[in-house]
Amino acid sequence: MITISAWLAIDEVTVENACVQIVPGAHKQVIPHVKAPPEMLFRQMADPNYISTQPVIDMELQPGQFFLFNEQTLHRSAANTSNYRRIGLAIRVTVPLVKVYHQQLFEGHKVIIVSGKDPLGFNQVTQPPPYS
Fold first, then answer.
1. What are the residue boundaries of the structural domains of the chain, listed by start?
2. In what order do the strands lie in the sheet with 66-70?
3. Contact 40/105 with Cβ under 8 angstroms?
């Protein structure tokens, strides 16, 4: 495990507005990945033929609450078809040997080095915001 992520709720996040769902126990399996459909942000996804998605844990959160997970945690969320906004902030911390595909995230995306150096130079790096 080399990445830890936090999903921080900006809005109230419920089943109704398509909260993140976690598949318990899936981290104990090796699940192959397949090419994701073009409308998805990431290029790969877990192969649905290898996983059981029931039961799931609905990660309902109040604004300011968060949960932590790693790259082995199988998770998903459906499209929000409710009339309620669902905004969350995904924060990922990893090591320099992970190549981030910046252009697939959004224009101008860069990483911030929290500690140490990036000897491999895989990623586009920026400085953290200045203290105010």
1. 1-94, 97-132
2. 66-70, 4-9, 88-93
3. no
Residue 96 burial (C-beta neighbours within 10 Å; 0-12, 13-18, 19+):
middle
CATH of 1-94, one of 3.40.720.10, 2.40.37.20, 3.50.30.60, 2.60.120.620: 2.60.120.620
- The verdict on whether omega for the bond into residue 55 sits within 30 degrees of 0, i.e. cis, is yes
Instruction: Summarize pLDDT for 19-73 with one digit per residue, the tens.
Output: 999 988 878 888 888 998 887 767 788 888 877 767 899 999 999 999 999 988 8
Q: What is the pTM of this model?
A: 0.78
Look at the block and give the residue holding tokens 């080095």: 113
User: 81 near 58, Cβ under 8 Å?
Assistant: no
Residue ranges of E strands in 1-132:
4-9, 21-22, 33-35, 44-46, 57-58, 66-70, 75-76, 88-93, 111-112, 125-126
Identify the sign of the CA torsion 43, 33, 26, 56.
positive
Q: Which two tokens stand for residue 39?
A: 């409308």
The dihedral over CA atoms of 113, 114, 116, 117, expressed in degrees to the nearest 10, equals 0
